[in-house]
Amino acid sequence: MTEFFDINTIAFTLWGYSMSYLELAGVSIGGLATWLVARNNTWTWPAGVLSAVLFFFLFYQIQLYPDMFLQVFFIVTYLRGWWRWTHPQADEVVRQRELRVSRLTTRELLVWLSAGLLATLLLGTFASRLHEWFPVLFTKPSAFPYLDSFTTTMSIIATFLMIPKKLECWYLWLIIDLISAYMYYVKGVKLVSLEYLIFCYFALEGARNWTRDYRTYSHLYTKGAVQ
């Protein structure tokens, strides 16, 4: 069983690229989770938990340490998101107890972005020194410490915004996915890189779907159709 979590355990080789079982499983389940969330499907959260566990082991082995730590955050918040989507508060309900889409104010957006940039600086500095401070656990330097830290902190923010269904989360995900696709390609996990390019499409699709729902909700509340 432990061999499954080793990135050197190869499932198949295609066009000269060796695909590990770990990468294949993480990408497949992560893709399913993203497809589900773009369609407001609650089952995105348990699928996301399983994907995060797999990516934790993958990112450790390719020295993307901030991304590795991010998976722990994802596991906890995905469980929270699962509860949040299935137990909305009374004033958040629309259409058969569905949590409705809302938007950030300009001030809220600026606060989130400023916090993300500050956290990027702090986490990037920490990640760049891990191999010096904890050489037994981290035998190699962190790859892309600041760029990886940026996608990590912004992923945390995007997840916090996704749980209460804030529309702006999808535009953050689009930026994150573009940068992540580049990093994963350079680090040689090319299927993960391809997945994140596909995630860019899902981010645009999610933004489109949630914008449509947001406008629908606004219309319903204007007409007094939702109680």
Automatic annotation (TrEMBL):
GO cellular component terms listed in the entry, alphabetical order: plasma membrane
**Molecular function terms in GO for this entry?**
nicotinamide riboside transmembrane transporter activity
List, alphabetically, the InterPro entries matched. NMN_transpt_PnuC (IPR006419)
Q: Where in the cell is it found?
A: Cell membrane
Keyword Ligase, does the record have it? no
Q: How does it sit in the membrane?
A: Multi-pass membrane protein
Q: Where are the transmembrane segments?
A: 20-38, 45-62, 68-85, 109-131, 143-163, 170-186
Superkingdom per UniProt: Bacteria
Q: Write down what this protein is called.
A: Nicotinamide riboside transporter PnuC
Instruction: Say which species the protein is native to.
Output: Fibrisoma montanum
